[in-house]
Each structure stands twice: as C-alpha cells, then as structure tokens.
C-alpha cells in the first residue's frame, strides 16, 4: 500500500476546494467500486478529503491510498487519516468531506 498526504491552509483554500470538486467530478460521487467489477488495472486509488481546524485556522487535508486490495484501502482509510491528523499537531473539529475512488 502506498500512502500520500497533504494539508493546505490560508489563501490557497478556495483553489484546493476547487480541486476537490474536480476530483469528485472525474471519479463520480465517491462510491466504492462494485465487488466483482473487473478493473482496467489491478491497482486501486482512494482519496479521503477532510476539513478541520489546525493551529487555530481552517485547513483542508487529502490522504491518498493506492494498492491492489480495495477492501484493505477502504478499511484503513479513516484510521490512517486520524493518525496523519494526530501527527500534524493541534488539529480539531475534523470532518471527512468525502472519499473518492479513482
């Protein structure tokens, strides 16, 4: 499993929200691929978007997961996001905006 993460705050938030919307539009509304549906490749991608308040300011976060076992990606997404936000420091009021399968 490959994991990537990023956080944004300040003046770039409107641009990042636009990117989140673009990602949703390209991949659908975040539904998990149906079981038994053949994939074009054996690799699945899942992006989890969240907003929160870190160090007193509004923030957006994106956790990306990539691997061959989609059930494992789905099962680990929330706990990996929580660990990432905990490691980021003083974050609270976190809300998952959506999960996008790519």
In a few lines, what is going on in this structure?
The protein is an alpha+beta fold and 102 residues long.
Question: Can you walk through the features of this model?
Answer:
The protein has 102 residues and is of the alpha+beta class. The chain has helices spanning 13-27, 70-88; strands at 2-9, 44-54, 57-67, 91-101. A hairpin with a 2-residue loop joins strand 2 and strand 3. The protein is globular, with a radius of gyration of 14 Å. The two termini are 15 Å apart.
Task: List the topology elements.
Layout: E1 2-9, H1 13-27, E2 44-54, E3 57-67, H2 70-88, E4 91-101
Antiparallel strand pairs: 1-3, 2-3, 2-4
Query: What share of the residues does DSSP label as strand, in percent?
Result: 35-45%
What strand order characterises the main sheet?
Answer: 1-3-2-4
- Main sheet: strands, sense, barrel: 4 strands, antiparallel
Number of helices: 2
Please state the CA-atom Rg, rounded to the nearest Å.
14 Å
As residue ranges, the low-confidence spans are none
Gross morphology? globular
The chain-level mean pLDDT equals: 85
Helix content: 25-40%
Strand and helix order: EHEEHE
Class by SSE composition: alpha+beta
Distance between the termini: 15 Å
Specify the oligomeric state: single chain
The tally of strands reads 4
């Amino acid at each position: 499993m490959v994991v990537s993460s990023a956080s944004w705050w300040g003046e770039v938030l409107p641009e990042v929200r636009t990117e989140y919307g673009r990602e949703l539009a390209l991949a659908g509304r975040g539904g998990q691929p149906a079981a038994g549906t053949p994939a074009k490749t054996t690799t699945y991608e899942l992006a989890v978007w969240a907003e929160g308040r870190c160090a007193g300011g509004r923030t957006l976060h994106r956790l990306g997961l990539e691997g061959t076992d989609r059930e494992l990606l789905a099962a680990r997404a929330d706990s990996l996001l929580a660990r990432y936000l905990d490691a980021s420091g003083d974050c609270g009021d976190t809300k998952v905006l959506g999960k996008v399968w790519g």
